[in-house]
Fold this protein.
Amino acid sequence: MASTTASAAILTTHDLALTFPARGGPVEAVRGIDLTVEAGEILGFLGPNGAGKSTTLRMLTTLLPPTRGSATVAGHDLATEPREVRRRIGFVAQSGGLDPEESVHAELVLQGRFYRLSRVEAEARAEELAAELELTALLGRRCRELSGGQRRRLEIAMALTHRPRLLFLDEPTTGLDPGSRADLWDLVRRIRARQRTTVFLTTHYLDEADALADRLVVVDHGRIVVEGTPSDLKRRYGGSPDATLQDTFVAITGHGPRQQESAPLAL
Ligand SMILES: Nc1ncnc2c1ncn2[C@@H]1O[C@H](COP(=O)(O)OP(=O)(O)OP(=O)(O)O)[C@@H](O)[C@H]1O
Ligand SMILES: [Mg+2]
């Protein structure tokens, strides 16, 4: 979302990098990312498999310590105030962490308790979230009995328990049918509209990035290769505002979003 008021960044990174020690030599998954995200923005973080998207998200959500660089997330320093950061963010990881044997209701209440709500408050919040995310009819169902789209909605509901200012979603719609994807897009828009929650999402679906994101950041080989609004990128790299984002993506990265990381950059 273009902002005409003074900049209100909710996230900034400076030279953020992570190298995994691995057999066969270190893997430079993220090689120095400088990024600013404005409050209330929906940011699409794109890039081919292995580009470093999930690793970046795991650093920004305090799950992995960076090997270099710094970040301020929701007003707090990632390295020195990780607890303060965690209180203000929600994260839905690429592969979910639901307990297959628990009910939807139990998972929602447990999450409330995790965020130190009393039993009564946690019950009330579970009901509220279920209503907001259209899970009320599913409250008694076990997680293993949910469809992929329903599971995603539950994971997002859980991530919203503590009303985070910033929500990270790692490939929220992968594996969903077109109808469920469209529902999820509506949900993300509603979340942003209702509480002005900032949404930082990764996706491989370029139509999704085009439809949903105010701004796109494309990463490849652990670095940002380009950023701008979807129409900016289409004009600059796809040749015209009518270019598809698919053509634009190929022009930027030299390959389609699902191909492997070995293809050369065409910038
Ligand atoms: N725990 C780990 N140990 C070693 N290397 C890792 C580890 N996790 C990720 N990597 C490597 O880091 C690089 C970036 O991986 P990452 O998961 O961040 O990519 P991604 O952009 O999220 O890809 P995808 O689109 O496939 O989800 C890859 O080369 C990957 O193999
Ligand atoms: Mg990933």
Remarks:
- The two ends are 26 Å apart (CA to CA).
- The beta strands are 9-20, 27-38, 42-46, 68-73, 76-77, 89-92, 166-170, 198-202, 215-220, 223-228.
- DSSP finds nine helices and ten strands in the chain.
- Confidence is low (pLDDT under 50) at residues 1-5, 259-267.
